[in-house]
Amino acid sequence: MTPSSNPPPTTGSSSKRCVPVCSGIVLSCLLAFTLQIFFFSPISPDLLLLPPASSASLIPTTSDIQSVTRLGEGILNGPEDVCVDRNGVLYTATRDGWIKRLHKNGTWENWKLIGGDTLLGITTTQENEILVCDADKGLLKVTEEGVTVLASHVNGSRINLADDLIAATDGSIYFSVASTKFGLHNWGLDLLEAKPHGKLLKYDPSLNETSILLDSLFFANGVALSKDEDYLVVCETIKFRCLKYWLKGESKEQTEIFVENLPGGPDNIKLAPDGSFWIAILQLSSPGLEFVHTSKATKHLLAAFPKLIKLVAPLHKKAAVVNVAANGIVIRKFEDPNGKVMSFVTSALEFDDHLYLGSLNTNFIGKLPLKAT
């Protein structure tokens, strides 16, 4: 007898056995992807309600910023903030770790090299010293002799993401901590999480002590003193508002809203000579993508792919600054509506009838004449 043999399997039956195997692999990948996004997410998000239209939207939109003179073009790398000392010398801190200054004769000087790419807010003191916030190192004092770290810790914890600052005539220094959870290079995660990780701090040079004035702020950013130094204004970027913190009088140590429903997230704030304030405004939402701020699932997805955050917060597509009166009313607004000349403007300083604009997305400082606008 001839031994019987089994026929070879057909292609069809082999394909049928592959289907469940492939399906299992796909499902496993989807499960791993879901676990990675939702259970190992770097954020624990809250919903963020975008503000309704405010009185600022009624102010005519102009393109004034497109007519700026470009100071230091090509030698400045992302000059985030600007200050002027009592001698009329302009200072800025750049992404390449330098503090550079513009002398009154129009020449630029590489003044002090601090290093890193985390220098942010900059201001002067009554003694004509330069103070700067370093997002990694904390509060720094810079003089001809060198650099001194004034404050790197508060209440035993390291200061993370020191952002902006102002010095009072009594020597006190007030500065913001934007986030105690996220650093400068992933600050967009703080926007997605939409929780209050910010602080307002005070450094007392006579005691060499740092204390917390306000806690639980929503990305604490710009800080400014009123003309009489009776209150501070601190910007909460992701709440589209600024708070007033009283330093003197019957309301001392109390907080109230100074201005809200701004047409974007407030960045740095500067006192103007007339007692009003200049506030740089950041574009934190894209038309058609506003839903992202009210969807936790979408926030988790974006947190897994941080480069996509630029789609939600198109900081590089527009520039805007507003002038807010001492009573909290927006009175002027300047823009580059499509980012043609400047975008991502982070500070606006008024000096000698001009507005000096810092930006993290330019290689120059913008100089805008105010009398012509």
TrEMBL record:
GO terms for cellular component: endomembrane system; vacuole. It comes from the Eukaryota. InterPro entries: 6-blade_b-propeller_TolB-like, Strictosidine_synth_cons-reg. The chain crosses the membrane at residues 21-40. Pfam families: SSL_N, Str_synth. It is found in: Vacuole. Keywords: Glycoprotein, Membrane, Transmembrane, Transmembrane helix, Vacuole. The keyword Transmembrane applies. Its main location: other. GO terms for molecular function: hydrolase activity. Residues 166-250 form the Strictosidine synthase conserved region domain. Belongs to the strictosidine synthase family. This is Strictosidine synthase conserved region domain-containing protein.
